[in-house]
Design brief:
The protein is mostly helical. It has helices at 3-6, 12-19, 31-39, 62-71, 73-89, 91-106, 111-128, 131-140, 142-162, 166-178, 181-208, 212-218, 223-229, 235-265, 274-286, 306-321, 331-343, 349-369, 371-393, 402-414, 418-431, 435-443, 452-468, 482-503, 507-512, 515-530, and strands at 290-291, 297-298.
């Protein structure tokens, strides 16, 4: 008799005592029985009725099933990517396999066709041949299951749309897109990546003291950035580029305005000067300027100071004389009068009020007489205001010290000055030069950090390296050096662009194919090879 049989407890009374609830029955004290109990194998105990454990029927609880499914996601994802990349890495082999499938459909009695169909049928039955197998497929290959589902829903949607049920077909196609785990994950990763890139650039901007926008410009990998960073483009050259762009903006505005004004001249319209002369009389009365019998102006009791007398007299004579020539009262002629008044300057505050009021009257009279003039004038005035804002915010006036202008250009990227950055963007549009990249390169030229945060980080790394005698800690200082960070990000950006030029032509075609379709093509090719 073997040990398992010899040591088994079979006495009914003993078994009754052992199976009784705690504290019930008789206590076993017989030395022989105790010896048997010590030698006997452990009595099997019932597994706890927990949702995560396996039950007596061998079926898994829901929490356990979900947990195992989630644990299989990484492996399932790798398998899915392997199948998806098969048609991309071996397009010729994939097409050959598809041709064999079409041939099998046309000649199903051929041995090769039967073998292929049997292999495909077996693969389908193994995954979805019963409810139990479907459950095992979901658990063991969750990503593959979703791709299969996406393929079926998308295909059904296309078929339903062909049948005339466009709304139902669209709904099925949408469901197919939503159940595509790869595409949905890519959208999420893209959003996370954009956020991470923004946060990372801001952190490097703080470490180098150059700002997040400068770091993002560095990552573009442009030639203009590298030239400025390496000293091949100076600050004065960047300033000259900005000023030329401003001049280009002014020239384009003037050319467009002149072209539209010429079109108005062909209309032959004449503008009534009477309201303008009435305004002159009102202004003379407002500032207590008397008119003599001969038309001469008397400023003896005027509120204007003596410095404005000559200027106002010149303006009044100009307006009174306007209309004496043939084209004076045409839209083009009256626009010229408005420009003359707009260009007029007097040192007297009241004198400027006089001129401005009169200029506005001329402009309003042109607008009321020629409605097209108003449509032409609005973009012109907007461009004028934009130029004024650019000159003021970036100190591009001719009288400003060049160093001041360069400093304002560079700080536009370093600080969160969205207005100045927008002004630089407008200059780029006008001049066709990547001014922001050049400014960023100029900023990243230095080796040492510009801010206190970077300096503290450098000191801490140096102190720790000396304290621990570990020179590798000095590597941390590379994250605070504008030049090192700029060179690395620029190289990375230019490399990414180069790769994009090579792979770019094929990307629209690849993106147009659903992941679920690529997955099925990859699975089919592998099945064809294994048949």
């Amino acid at each position: 008799m073997d040990n398992g049989t010899q040591n088994r407890v079979t006495d009914p009374e003993i078994l009754r005592q052992l199976n009784a609830p705690s504290g019930a029955g008789k206590k076993v004290t017989d030395p022989g029985i105790l010896q048997q109990l010590e030698a006997a194998p452990p009595t099997p105990t019932r597994a706890p009725s927990d949702a995560t454990a396996t039950t007596q029927t061998g079926q898994q609880g829901p929490l356990g099933y979900i947990g195992e499914t989630l644990s299989n996601v990484p492996k399932s994802t790798l398998g899915a990517f392997k199948n998806i990349t098969v048609p991309l890495t071996d397009p010729i082999g994939t097409v050959r396999s598809l041709a064999q499938m079409m041939q099998a459909g046309q000649n199903p009695t051929m041995p090769e066709s039967q073998a292929l169909m049997q292999a495909l049928g077996k693969a389908g039955i193994d995954r979805y041949g019963s409810l139990d197998k479907i459950g095992e497929t979901v658990k063991g290959d969750p990503v593959g299951f979703l791709l299969d589902l996406s393929f079926v829903l998308g295909g059904a949607g296309g078929a339903v749309k062909l049948g005339g049920l466009s709304k139902a077909g669209k709904a099925l196609e949408t469901a197919g897109a939503v159940t595509d785990p790869i595409r949905m994950a890519a959208k999420g990763i893209g959003a996370v990546g954009r956020t991470a890139g923004k946060v990372g650039s801001e952190l490097l901007g703080v470490a180098t003291g150059k700002g997040g926008q400068t770091i993002r410009e560095a990552a573009q990998g442009s030639e203009g950035f590298r030239e400025a960073m390496r000293g091949h483009t100076t600050g004065e050259e960047i300033l000259t580029t900005a000023q030329k762009a401003l001049g280009q903006m002014r020239s384009e505005r003037s050319a467009e305005y002149t072209q539209k004004l010429a079109a108005l001249a062909r209309s032959g319209a004449q503008i009534d000067k009477t309201p303008i002369m009435a305004k002159v009389d009102d202004l003379l009365t407002k500032f207590n300027i008397k008119t003599g019998t001969g038309g001469e102006l008397d400023f003896s009791r005027s509120t204007l100071n003596s410095a404005a007398h000559k200027d106002v007299k010149e303006i009044v004579e100009l307006v009174q004389d306007w209309g004496s020539q043939a084209d004076d009262l045409t839209p083009v002629g009256m626009d010229m009068l408005k420009k003359r008044l707009d260009d007029f300057y007097t040192e007297s505050n009241n004198g400027r009020v006089f001129v401005t009021d009169l200029k506005n009257t001329v402009k309003n009279q042109i607008r009321s007489s020629v409605p097209e003039y108003d449509e032409m004038l609005k973009p012109y005035e907007q461009s004028m205001r934009l130029e004024k804002d650019i000159r003021s915010s970036l100190s591009l006036k001719g009288t400003v010290n060049p160093e001041t202008a360069i400093r304002k250009l560079t700080t536009a990227l370093r600080t969160n000055n969205d207005f100045r950055r927008s002004m630089i963007a407008k200059l780029e549009e006008a001049g066709g030069k990547d001014i922001q990249a050049q400014i960023a390169g100029l900023e990243m030229r230095g080796t040492l950090p510009a801010g206190n945060v970077g300096r503290i980080m450098d000191f801490a790394a140096l102190y720790r390296a000396i304290q621990t005698a570990d020179p590798t800690l000095l590597f941390l200082m590379t994250f605070t050096s504008p030049r090192v960070v700029g060179e690395f990000l620029s190289a990375l950006g230019s490399t990414t662009k180069a790769i994009g030029k090579v792979t770019g032509p094929a990307m629209p075609f690849v993106k147009a194919i659903p992941d679920a379709t690529l997955y099925q093509l990859g699975k089919f090719k592998q099945t064809d090879e294994q048949k």
